[in-house]
Give the backbone structure.
Amino acid sequence: MRNMMPKSALVLALLAASVTSTLAAGSEEEFKAAYAAADAANKEAGKLRNQWTTTANTLAAAKKAADAGEFDKATASAKEAEALAKASIFQATSEKTRWKDMEIR
Amino acid sequence: MKLRSAIYLASATLALAALTLASALPSGAADKVDPVADAKAFQKFFTDKFPKVKFEDFVNGPYSMNEDLYRQWQEKEQFPPYEFALDMGKEMFAKPFKNGKTYADCFANGGIGVRQNYPYFDEKEGKVITLELALNRCREANGEQPYSYVRDEMAALTAYMAFTSRGKLMDIKIPNDPRALEAYEKGKEYFYTRRGQLNFSCATCHVQSPGERIRAEILAPAIGIVNAMPIYRSEWSGMGTTSRRFTTCNSQIRAVPLSPQDDEYRNVEYYLSYVSNGLPISGPGARP
């Protein structure tokens, strides 16, 4: 029993942490932060002339979900959009030299 | 002792300098922009890859890659689907602007049989001028509103101008101007650069895979691809300009298209046209 207590406490603590993080993921604030990060990354891709249509679509889906009050879904979409934008930045950067590998010589 | 150190230091510096020079030289040589060598290698790549295709047939895109399609196309040419656009373009070309002038006043030889010289590098402006751009500039210079680069009016005008140039060999010049070489090189870079979520470059389809199917379509070879522009596409149920082709290619690979006639598109058209020098103008074309 004495050994059970710390374990229960640990389980409870983990549960609480998970509930807290779920609540946080669903918050409007977290969505706004995730959206801002995604938007900034997409703008960076724009400066490199290499935005992806999927990033724009996913950002639009995030906004639509947020407008409907579904912040869990909105945050997830915003994070996905950020990942897509970052991938497009990586692509544009690496292609600065990699394009030559494909050139007919 | 000091002298020995100085000798070591000098030797090390010399060795380092030699190494730097040696490593810089080959890359410098490899990076030298040589359009003549590029065009030769480009044309050889396709003639080696498709030894049965006659050189001048590359301008017929997917039809040159597939015998069945070739026969279908020849039948289609009896009543070509671009004919309406051609008639419309001819009428538009002849119709005077409000100031009484016509397109003929803006172009060499009255705009007849000049398609093979576009795009060209304008040394005054330091940029590539495409036929579509020249047409809109002509309109604006004569007090008219420019046309959309992706709509029917532009396609009709360029169709007529291409038609009057059929059979003439593409003849793109790169003047002795570092800016022209830079535009050419940037066009080449655009052509080979992967973009979009699908990670495709223009070359992925039109160099690596011509003759292969992508869904229901047979991919055209890059060589001579611009000689057939503008094109009637059954997929679009209408005509498409070069600008429309570039922007839709980008969308299809999930890249956000640039604006028509942005520098990138002008440069890539310059590059693609230059490496197709010597091939006849065949536009307007018809594609599946």
Observations:
- The domain at 33-287 of chain B is CATH 1.10.760.10 (Cytochrome Bc1 Complex; Chain D, domain 2).
- Residues 72 and 108 of chain B are 36 Å apart (CA to CA).
- Chain B touches chain A through 24 residues (CB under 8 Å).
- Residues 2-30 of chain B form the longest helix (29 residues).
